[in-house]
Amino acid sequence: MIQPSISKTDTRMTKAVTPQERLAITLRYLATGETQTSLSYQFRVSQNLISLIIPETCSAIYEALQPIYMRIPRSQEEWRKVSQDFPQFVELSPLFRSIRWEAGTNGRASDGGVWNKCKLKEDIEYEEIGIHPPANLPNYDIQVPYVIVGDDAFPLQKYLMNPYPGNDQSNEKHIHNYRLSRARRVSENAFGILSSRFQVFNKPIRTCPERANMVIQACLVLHNMLRTESRQDYSPPELLDQEDIQRRRMVVGQWHDHQHNALGDLQVIARRPKRDAMQVRDLFCTYFNNEGSVPWQNEMALLH
């Protein structure tokens, strides 16, 4: 699939590194995070050449697989399908795949600094990505907007929900935060699996931003492909954080065993959210405690 893009021609002086070797070098780098010096010794290819092979092959992987495994929704109907499928992701996290990513902000930036530079924020606020207009939740006669689920590192917006702050909360707010956390666990599992399978993320990627983007792109489309084609081998159930509803307990996934804090938390800066955003969060809180409640939520919320 990518061979034509990474094939090189032999010269009179030098025999070209084959496409198979180029792919092997790149996959080894992504899977282990080994240094280019180490890879040079293993594959008997110069370090300078490896520094060119990896981004070139990563780019070829992304270009070949993205249309198949990482297609970005473009219409209201496609986004509505994403929202309809999400409850399955909450129950069956191995189904989850990335559909959009952005990189390039300094890791020391605050939540606001990261989000304000995010193209997704701009696209949502200028209504450029076709997200479906507000709609009723099941058995609920009040319309609410479609929202992104975030943690307290992100600012509360009408389209971006985060938990109620503080520890001294009413039972209703505690239930809301549990339900939000339950939904957010899908993406947390995805990041956990990504960094455990692609250990290049377990330490800083020491290259320029453009090449780092190529590495991230390749890992994400490979992640999506493996979740689709080899789900049981790539992300078996024991790898994931899960709820054992029957026993009312949390089961910690094995991906935590591979974490080295490379995908660290964002800096949280307290800020006063806008009134309309707080009203949307209150609507979800009311729904989770009434029409949208689930039988186990009171007991499971105590574990959070």
From TrEMBL:
InterPro entries: HARBI1-like, HARBI1_dom. Keywords: Hydrolase, Metal-binding, Nuclease, Nucleus. One of its GO terms (cellular component) is nucleus. Pfam families: DDE_Tnp_4. Residues 102-224 form the DDE Tnp4 domain. GO terms for molecular function: hydrolase activity; metal ion binding; nuclease activity. Its cofactor is a divalent metal cation. It is found in: Nucleus. It comes from the Eukaryota. PANTHER family: NUCLEASE HARBI1-LIKE PROTEIN, PTHR22930. Belongs to the HARBI1 family. This is DDE Tnp4 domain-containing protein. It comes from Petrolisthes manimaculis. The lineage of its organism: Eukaryota, Metazoa, Ecdysozoa, Arthropoda, Crustacea.
